[in-house]
Amino acid sequence: MNIPAELKYTKSHEWIRREDDGTVTIGITDHAQEALGDIVFLDLPEAGRVVAAGEECAVVESVKAASDIYAPVAGEIVAANDEALDAPESVNADAYANWLFKLKPANAADVDALLDAAAYAEVAAD
Amino acid sequence: MARVTPLHAVHVAAGARMVDFAGWDMPVNYGSQIEEHHAVRSDAGMFDVSHMLALDLTGADATPFLRTLLANDVAKLTVPGKALYSCMLNAEGGVIDDLIVYYFAADHFRIVVNAGTADKDVAWMRKQIARIGANVTLDAHRDLAMIAVQGPNARTKTWHAIPGSESASAGLKPFFAAQVGDMLIARTGYTGEDGFEITLPASQAADLWNALAAAGVAPCGLGARDTLRLEAGMNLYGQDMDDATSPLNAGLSWTVDMKDIDRNFIGRAALETHPASQKMVGLVLLERGVLRAHQTVFTDAGEGETTSGTFSPTLQQAIAFARLPLDVAEGSTVEVDIRGKRLKARTVKLPFVRNGQALI
């Protein structure tokens, strides 16, 4: 299973990467894209939207099903990946390169509390 | 514990993603569902459909019994090998199952029913045999496998894979079957493409599967089977109709044969009392999103509901079946509630795709 060690994770199969500017970049894990199958549609949040931790803020739809994507921590959306919007299948091709949205956390320490790669590997193995 | 088909080990060895389907552990895809879908539309793909149940009905009363049991009329079948699609209704006119019946002789028919309904179907058939006192014997075959080979090149590739099969099956018209050695080769399917459905002894299934793969037929899972049948405008039992649905409201009026006024098939009286109150139409989404089952549809004539929906790999847009008020005209713009947003869709005549060509 492809679970990069430098990223943080959630039980709901999002990955989170800390950026130098204090924002975080969010996508779905390789395990999640594999389980969803061919991804055909993304609905991503608009910049400026303020979200609570655990709030539904994006949708990934495969040929099989729709899957909600949750904000891993509270904060403000600062960007959505328009390129992925136009090519949803790119998330299947590389789930870590093709992120969904960026968020500025309300509290940077919240990110530390997310799962590390080892803990997520256990979640994904279930 | 899930049931498995004679091809289960072949699927697992091929790296198929397996899922539970009606109590059976079945392949949903072998990698990409969309690639499998395109393989069937443009070349040839194969599906393990051994979870479906084949039954043989034999005996002096076989024809009159089926004329009572089924909403379509097997009296239309007079040539050996000819197949007929029909609903089997309950007394209230609801659909117990949809099935294919093959005529071998007036006293011998083959019936193929859905996997999820097989036990219920057999119990219902036996109950009706006893009630009517029909002189027939019903034998369920769990010793058979079924492989559907579908696509514009499906027949040619099947002939490569099964030596000697071309002479016996090249002349088959759609909806006819021929016995070729131990195999029953039928020119039928569930994809809207040309092809065969091959029934054969379970012990020979893996060899045929491997021979078809060697002939260039792509293994396809239930995922592609669903998007293909949706594009082809074909109902899925349990999704688009069930025990509580009249075939007249599920786009299946063409399969209900009322012509012989003396043929009192089960459910006929209920259908005559309750004519169609809704109609099944196709929907094409005009905005970004994906249509799914059980979304509310708002029309000028009232509300309806989608019964199946997906992203169509051929059309590259979202499509659905919807049960709508009778007054909704073809080509109308309607609104569908998708995850709390109302998005515009257009009503179209089914099917969406046939023989590789978009029809909308």
Write a concise keyword list for the protein shown above.
heterodimer; A: 126 residues; alpha+beta; OB fold (Dihydrolipoamide Acetyltransferase, E2P); 6-stranded antiparallel sheet; 3-stranded antiparallel sheet; 9 strands; B: 360 residues; Elongation Factor Tu (Ef-tu), domain 3; 6-stranded mixed sheet; 6-stranded antiparallel barrel; 9 helices; 21 strands; 22% helix; globular
Question: How would you describe this structure to a colleague?
Answer:
The complex is a heterodimer of chains A (126) and B (360). A 6-stranded antiparallel β-sheet of chain A has the order 1-2-3-9-8-5. A 3-stranded antiparallel β-sheet of chain A has the order 4-6-7. Chain A has 5 helices and 9 strands, in the order βββαβββββααβαα. Chain A has a single domain (8-125), classed as Beta Barrel (OB fold (Dihydrolipoamide Acetyltransferase, E2P)). In chain A, a hairpin with a 5-residue loop joins strand 2 (14-18) and strand 3. Chain A is α+β, with helices and mostly antiparallel strands. The mean pLDDT of chain A is 96. Chain B is globular. Chain B has helices at residues 8-13, 33-42, 62-69, 118-132, 154-161, 165-169, 205-214, 222-231, 268-273, and strands spanning 17-21, 24-29, 45-48, 53-58, 83-89, 95-105, 108-113, 137-141, 144-150, 177-180, 183-186, 195-201, 218-219, 278-285, 296-299, 302-312, 317-325, 333-338, 341-348, 353-354, 357-358. Chain B is α+β, with helices and mostly antiparallel strands. Chain B has 9 helices and 21 strands. Chain B has a domain at 277-358: Elongation Factor Tu (Ef-tu), domain 3 (Beta Barrel), CATH 2.40.30.110. In chain B, helix 2 crosses helix 8 (222-231) and helix 5 (154-161) crosses helix 7. In chain B, the strands form 5 sheets. A 6-stranded mixed β-sheet of chain B has the order 10-11-12-9-3-13.
